[in-house]
Amino acid sequence: MQFYDQLIKETTESKNKFYSRKIISKVIAEGVSKDLYLDYLVEAYNHVKFTCPLLEMSKNLMSHSTDRIFIDAFDEYIDEEKGHEEWILNDIKNLGRNSDPIRKTDGDIAVRSMIGYMKYAITNITPYSMLGMIFVLEGTSVNIAQEAAEAIAKKNNLNLNKGFSYLISHGKLDISHVEFYKNLVNKVHDKNLQSIIIDTAKIIYLLWGNVFDEIAEKNELKMRKVA
What we know:
The chain is mainly alpha-helical and 227 residues long. 74% of the residues lie in helices and 0% in strands. The protein has helices at residues 3-10, 12-19, 22-29, 34-48, 51-60, 68-81, 84-94, 109-124, 130-155, 165-169, 175-185, 191-226. Helix 4 (34-48) runs antiparallel to helix 12 and helix 9 packs antiparallel against helix 11 (175-185).
């Protein structure tokens, strides 16, 4: 069994728990309110803006003599991911919310916890931990981003070409990234590193899920106040 297949197998339970969340099934089946979607974009901004810095941190801790393949791959990821946080801000602006104050925010507790854990894992465990985070975030994007965008646009009578550039770009059109990741992670042969990547993926499924839980709870509280 190649490591990518092992990674999928050993994180299936964590993945299923992530997808069992009511907010996840709801957004795919029927969409959510524009306000909740905007709240999601704010949190997305506050983790996406750290994607390139975390990749930089990881590759800078790798050995140029033994980790060259992974350093080059992370450079490719950085080139691909640059500026994506600006796409999110543009989506927020196109949907009618002022995006300028968002630049000064760090996100709510859940997203800060996820980024904080990754900084810890990269610097104190191994920079290869980043491969666990990439596995989860790219995998969930490919699985649900396109469907979520379409459902939200339909529910709120919104133009799919205005306010959904981030989701659509990270949906099924981005499936080539999964193949790139698969080929890369299969080059990790060290059993200890494999275990750490699996463990990181499980943790990120939990922490990423907490982000969605927090967004849903925050929105529900706002709705109660309005009522």
